[in-house]
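ok so i was messing around last nite and threw this chain in just to see what happens. nothing serious, just curious
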Amino acid sequence: MSVRRLAAEQPATFSFTPENAAWADKQIAKYPEGRQASAVLSLMWRAQKQHDFWLPKPAIEEVARRLGMPYIRALEIATFYSMFNLEPVGRYFIQLCGTTPCMIRGSDGIKAVLERVVGPMRKVRADGMFAWLEVECLGACCNAPMVQINEDYYEDLTPENFERVLDDLAAGRPVQRGSQAGRRSSEMADGLTALADFYGRDGRSGPGHDGAMPSEPHPDSPHHGDQTHERTEANGVSPNDGLAHRELRQSENVAEPDYVDVGTRRTEPAISDVQHKRHDAQVAAGGERDGPSAKPGHEPEHGEAGDDEAGRGGTAAHTEKP
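result:
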């Protein structure tokens, strides 16, 4: 990590606006007596936003005074966290992600635009509008390449649309934040490949977009024509309804034994409805089996004969479950 120092030129004073001062008091009040210093990051961030997105020395001193903490401790925090800019960054501070996903997707082209339109890294443009810095991953790898401008992300960039964003910001025109390619959130660029029957390929046109459950699979869905899907729909159960689908599977004699969660170990499976149904089917087919253990869940009492022991004329010994 590079050494971070305060800018050589500093304003003479700093004070919070009345609105920000009231906001700061509310933040400090959240902490018990003697723990007010816990609000230091919040107050420094507010001070930086008030002072054109950079944190001067008088602002650090003001935060320390409000929190009753030594100035050196506040300075240590301000110089440690790279979220605090210790020198002027212009009206729009651009942070360019240059790590692997963005580099593979073309961040070098975005960097070339910055060098040509804004100038050298860490230098504010002559009109005071822009400054830029290459940083580590900003966590928007799905929509690479991307930049952060002040507090907003601009994603799916190309040299052409990024330069257009800079021109619009400089001219005071409204800009589109987020994806510059019309992508919604971090969806796949070519459309959804999962849950297409619910949301639609474009993520907007499916029956589930307004919260409704789909009655039929989308033609692009892997479930289209699936007999399982048709069977469950015929029984009035949507395959998207997990609980109802499980109950249907149990009614079709598909065993799904329940286990009791006891932390790091599991007990024996409970006797399920499926096992009782199987027993009833055996009774209907050929009469009830001999022996008291024929009924699921029934354990022999002292002196009762189990199935095997009854056939040999023996007596089942009583044993306890582990």
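not much to say yet. Residues 227-235, 237-241, 303-319 have pLDDT under 50 and may be disordered.
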